[in-house]
Amino acid sequence: MSVESGIQDFTEKMTLNDGKEDEDDVVDPWNVQSKNKTGVDYDKLIKRFGSSKIDQELLTRWEKVTGKPIHHLMRRGIFFSHRDMHTILNLKEQGKPFYLYTGRGPSSDAMHLGHLIPFIVSKWLQDVFDVPLVIQLTDDEKFLWKDLTVEETIKLARENAKDIIACGFDVENTFIFSDFNYIGQCPGFYQNIVRIQKSVTFNQVKGIFGFGDSDVIGKISFPATQAAPALSTSFPFIFGAKKLNCLIPCAIDQDPYFRMTRDVAPRLGFPKPALLHSVFFPALQGAETKMSASDPNTAIFLTDTPKQIKNKVNKHAFSGGRDTIEEHREKGGNCSVDISYQYLRFFLEDDEKLKTVEQEYSSGAMLTGELKKLLIETVTPIVQAHQQRRAAVSEEVVTQFMTPRPLRFMNQ
After folding, report:
1. What ranges in 176-234 are assigned the alpha helix state H?
2. Do 102 and 119 form a contact (C-beta atoms < 8 A)?
3. 91 to each of 131, 146, 379, how far by Cα in Å?
4. 8-state DSSP, 295
5. Distance between alpha carbon 367 and the CA centroid of its chain, in Å?
6. What is the rounded distance in angstroms from the CA atom of residue 406 to the CA atom of residue 237?
7. Superfamily of domain 25-284
8. CA 119 – CA 169 distance, rounded (Å)
9. pLDDT at 290
10. Cα gap 236→215, rounded to integer Å
11. Which terminus in the chain has less CB density within 10 A, N or C?
12. What integer pLDDT is reported at residue 295 of this predicted model?
């Protein structure tokens, strides 16, 4: 099969909306919309995107291979889907190298709780597997899509890097880079970008990402930039000329980039990247709405004070409770739509306590005010601890993380 015919077949299979106009859920790298109060139907999304569900068999094997307990975000189905995770576990069993890759689009100087999720899991994966991690800051993407200047996006990337570093990454095994800066620093990165660009036609990228005739050409070429870090020779100072496997933890809306990458990579002599997909972090107003930096009441930001967190949860967190206390005691609350409960699924690590909360709220024994109080008590210390760690991240530390250099991989 030719490259052209192969990728054409792939493009037809992976078009985001699959030609179905009646799909309630819209999921692409820039838009997530659902008409259901419980949010996106992830089982349908797995079928549409052609990924695999993270099942108990995989989790059991994971613990056996690593000898360490599985993260609660995976136990609870927050990370719910994967591509080729068994291949990564095979490499771990065989003692063969691979690396991690994740990213962040810096569109504002204040990240919110939802932005932490891929980094929390990436930190855990780095610790469990003891492998290098590269983190891409797509300041170029945000310049193309947002009303921001180049200089503003570069500054935001550096500010976001401080929040990322505050998650506790190992500086000896982590490289953070801004696209605007790194493309000029590493010819190998740009060479891989161009190789990918040459492998995907204009019509194919329109089919994959839904670009229109009025979109600027920078948007059309950008997917190759997000794909390139999945090719290990984009980081010659870490991996040399080795063509290694890559594992990418991300929200599932980023999957179109990496479905494209998975088709192109073997044609360029690289292994297909593996993926771990997370669900979307809901806005305070409910899973049907979207968090927005322009509306601070849609999310809990990492810069919020305890008072702001308390006010946001009490005033804006969508409740699954009943209209009256009497009705709530009789019928119980709906955990599947209650935002306080949903946030606790992300941040309350104690499984038994979460199970008790679910039982008591569903039965009516726990009221909405009590559930919100528990959420406030849970996330406030997390945000405060993050703020303390971030305050300790100096400009010198940021520069250290963002300087191309050998990582611990080179010593293995």
Report:
1. 179-185, 187-199, 202-209, 217-227
2. yes
3. 12, 40, 36
4. B
5. 32
6. 5
7. HUPs (3.40.50.620)
8. 9
9. 63
10. 33
11. N
12. 75
